[in-house]
Write a structure and sequence with these properties.
Elements: E1 11-18, E2 21-27, E3 30-33, E4 55-56, E5 75-77, H1 90-96, E6 102-104, E7 110-111, E8 114-118, H2 124-128, H3 130-135, E9 146-147, E10 150-151, E11 157-161, E12 170-171, E13 177-182, E14 185-191, E15 198-203, E16 213-218, E17 223-226, E18 236-237, E19 247-248, E20 271-292, E21 306-307, E22 315-319, E23 322-326, E24 330-331, E25 349-358, E26 364-377, E27 382-389
Length: about 400
């Protein structure tokens, strides 16, 4: 078997960027991700075991019925290594568990967007992002935690959190699009048109405060801050789960029902929301060029490479009481001819079907199989491009 060493320019490392689209439709206390619905299976009404709008992080316990077959779960035995789950504090680990005890978790793990309406002094999530917001103020003064546009420590804030599993390394700038509907009519639309994080009201045409900044988006961290408090229409809706305190629609109430515990009267069901954006996924890619040089790799170990006709049996030569056998085989002529007889002139040719990749210790790392065998004659020179996502 012939082997060849990759040269310096035969291996290329690069990173491929992709921008998958994500869309959430929020209505009636539920969020729907990319219009996906729960799928029924053979053993469960919900194959993934997560609610609408959620992603199953590892897709474990797929189509399993907890009452019949039981669900798999993670577990750790407390021993000298003191390994534990990140959700168990050190103090609880030391006091509540003895050595030999089994610590268990649960599957499936899931993630979805979460909305928080913050109108009180208790706003730890906002205060925790103070430095991050101020850091991004170089892009826009609307990021500043405290400025002439308001103080985020005291003003009413609508905070939407997006887990990174939905967008990858960051949200793609210029792709954020928020739409606010009441009874099916678009009453407001925000876009980050300037790609600087400002969410500008762009629709509908001629709407109140059109062109104003209603909030900002943290692309890398996955947060949407909405502070626009102006009324988008004249409808009074129970956004606060208090029938005695109806509110006009504004960006402060965008996304009501997105895992925020909202449970208003029937009026809040008239509102629906669409939030869409593109993520940024960085995929490390390894490209390798495997070469089949001219005049080489023209012999095959495949049994069909030899002509096994009866006239090509090994020749035996005897000498006195000793004998030896000399095997002379004819290579099968696979050159096509326009006529059934005579055959075309003989030429060496093989059909390449697989390329094996080895490390420096000749340990097999992988095999690339060609969809269609490639015919190679002695005067052919081929380069095969192998691509691997890491």
């Amino acid at each position: 078997m012939s082997t060849y060493e990759f040269e310096e320019n035969d291996i290329i490392f690069n990173i491929m960027r992709t921008h998958p689209n994500c869309e959430f439709f929020i209505y009636s206390g539920s969020a729907y991700f990319n219009n996906n619905q729960n799928i029924s299976g053979a053993f469960s009404d919900n194959v993934l075991g997560v609610s609408n709008g959620y992603i199953s992080l590892y897709e474990l316990n797929v189509d399993r019925n907890s009452s019949d077959t039981g669900l798999i779960y993670p577990f750790i035995t407390k021993d000298g290594s003191r390994s534990t789950f990140s959700t168990i504090s050190t103090s609880n680990f030391n006091t509540q568990f003895n050595y030999g005890d089994t610590l268990t978790g649960s599957y499936p793990l899931s993630a979805s967007i979460t909305r928080e309406y913050l109108n009180t002094s208790t706003r730890t999530h906002v205060i925790a992002l103070r430095n991050t917001l101020n850091y991004h103020s170089r892009l826009s003064p609307h990021y500043q935690f405290s400025s002439s546009f308001g103080d985020k420590e005291t003003q009413v804030v609508n905070l939407i959190s997006i887990p990174s599993i939905f967008y990858g390394s960051s949200i793609d700038k210029g792709t954020v699009n928020l739409k606010f509907y009441v009874t099916g009519t678009l009453i407001g639309q925000l876009k980050d048109e300037n790609k600087n994080g400002e969410l500008i009201q762009v629709g509908p045409d001629g709407s109140t405060n059109s062109g104003s900044v209603a909030g900002v988006v943290l692309y890398d961290e996955g947060f949407v801050f909405l502070t626009g408090s102006w009324a988008l229409d004249s409808n009074s809706i129970d956004y606060l789960s208090d029938p005695t305190d109806l509110q006009n629609s504004s960006w402060l109430f965008y996304g009501v029902g997105a895992n925020d515990g909202a449970n208003g009267d029937s009026t809040y069901l008239s509102a629906s929301y669409i939030m869409s954006f593109n993520g940024t996924e960085k995929i490390p890619t390894l490209t390798m060029f495997a070469r089949a040089p001219k005049g080489e790799l023209n012999f095959s170990n495949n049994p069909t490479y030899i002509d096994h006709d009866s006239s090509n049996r090994p020749t035996t030569i005897s000498t006195s009481s000793n004998s030896y056998q000399q095997q002379e085989h004819t290579i099968k002529n696979t050159i096509s001819s326009s006529y059934p007889d005579p055959n075309a002139p003989f030429k060496k040719q093989v059909f390449i079907t697989k390329i094996a990749i080895y490390d420096k210790d000749r340990t097999l790392l992988g095999i690339a199989s060609l969809a269609t065998p490639v015919k190679k004659a002695e005067d052919d020179d081929y380069t095969f491009k192998l691509k691997l996502d890491l």
